[in-house]
Amino acid sequence: MRLSSVLLSALLCAASARAQYFSAGWTPGQPVPPAEPQGGAPPPAHTFERAAAPLPTPEQAGAQAQTTASPASTLKSLTSLLDVNRLLTSGPVASLFGKIGVNITDAVAKGAASPWDERVPLLTDENFDDVVVREVLTEQEEKDRVWFIIISVSAGQNNAVSKFVDESFDKAFNETVITGDLPNVRWGRIDYINVTYLTTKWAIWTGPYLLVLTDRGQTLRFYKADRVRITAELIRELLVEELWRNSAPWKTNFAPGGKREWVLHYYAVALTYIFNFVNRFPRWMLMIASGAVASLVMRLLHKNPEAPVPAPAPTAAPVAPQKQPGADLVVSQGSATAVGSSATATASPSKSKGKLRKNAKK
Predict the structure, then answer these.
(1) Residues 48-60 pLDDT 10s
(2) Which pTM does this prediction carry?
């Protein structure tokens, strides 16, 4: 029994042994393996190294970003795909225009170029507080700081007055940069079409306007630019001689610091949310949607009222004929006469038959 158990154990050990521990020996032409270091432990038969995760390719990264994008960014990307400028500059459309001799890419680029002097900073709802309100200034610089801003509408509509005022503004700015006589004045531009919060908070519903801003945006002086012929000389005279100080600032309950300033603030915030949502759609899509809504409203307003259905006329109940008192008497007399005559008519044949029988017997 002991011998059989020993043999069984040996067989199990032999079965669990692997062939890699046994070498087939050296064959002619086989390179000689390097000698193992003296006294060193042999390397393990199997090694395991965790493979590093491969870096995603740009295509994979873009696909992952699209899957994890928010609905707003997805809507924005969809809007960019439906943009007319993007469609016109795409490969097939650009090649089609090229065949008829039109370089549509250059035309779109010229149309998208800014018509203003790019040295003048463009103020928006997002950067106004950082650039104007929280500008880093010393105490004396804060007292002397004057912002001269133009609120332009020429980017969104073909307004000749606004274009002329923009040219005069840029010319005055260029002359000021050359002379350097207004170190405390900073120039800025607001695009009325793309700025909602600031123009609504300042109760500006049209343009163009010239604005003199001091006290970090708390004191405002507005000048309607279409009242007089605005020239570069007139603008420089207004700033160099500080004629703007003769104008009264905007001080009402809705002005900055007024007790009802919060009304225009929240109204401007609401309009900003609406504008940011609507601005994600292309203009041609908004025109189609607005036309459909206007057509529906006009149909509802000019809809003819339905003619009232006339009620059915009530049917009169049949009237029973009235019997006259003399008619019953006449009818009764007539019926009695008819009965009497019929009785007489029936009695006479019976008498004639009796007479015939008697004559026959005789």
Answers:
(1) 455 445 545 544 5
(2) 0.57
